[in-house]
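Q: Could you fold this chain for me?
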Amino acid sequence: MSIVLDLLQTIPTWHLVGLFVAGMLAFIISIISGGGGAILLIPVTSWMLGATAAAPVINLATFVSNGSRMYLFWHDIDWSLTKYYVPSALVGAWLAALIFSRLEAGWIQLLIGVFLVSTIFQYKFGKVSKTFDMPKVGFIPLGFVIAFMSTLVGGLGPILNPFYMNSGLEKENLIATKTANSFFVGIIQIASYAFFGLLTAKLWVYGLVLGLGAVIGNIIGKRFLAGMSISQFRIMLLILMVISGLIMIIRNINVIF
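A: Sure. Below is the predicted structure, expressed as structure tokens.
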């Protein structure tokens, strides 16, 4: 206990308060717009803690958040899709943690940002519900790729939304299934970060505080979600994807020059 107290004394109080509030607000938005809380946190955590700390801290917070979100949406999970996504995603997460410090993630975020911004045109500004047919078996390679990239950059939730939408999921089902998939991948992500020495004691504190704020955000966000129609949810989904994409493009445009 004394070790924990000594550690807390080395952390500025405004860091803890700021991370808690940021986690709560980001995950309220995440619930009502189908994800993206982690991406919204990347600029905040990078500014407060440094770019290299962002991915481990955000993924730890997301893991904590997903535990509470699975409880809230348990009956809406499509387990038949999860069994395709999770196994390959676990491999991708472990491999990404292995090479975390050796790979430039700027190009990844820039390309994903462009893809996310393009979704508003793909879905004709929310007027269509599907742009292609997504078979469940397609989630096997998708799980590997997304888990690999999210382990490197700290959060790519919105990029999965078009694939879930095109598989036929909407609203609570989309959020619940996406959360379950992320939760199981998070186990490997956190274990891998710890195994390769990427999660220091201080980063554990930051991640848990951020995650606690996210848990509160999940509870509040679910109340807002219940009052939304499917069309309203789809529009919010598209808005969040475009905003997340723009954030990624702006933050990583320097890799071109």
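A (continued): The longest helix spans residues 201-226.
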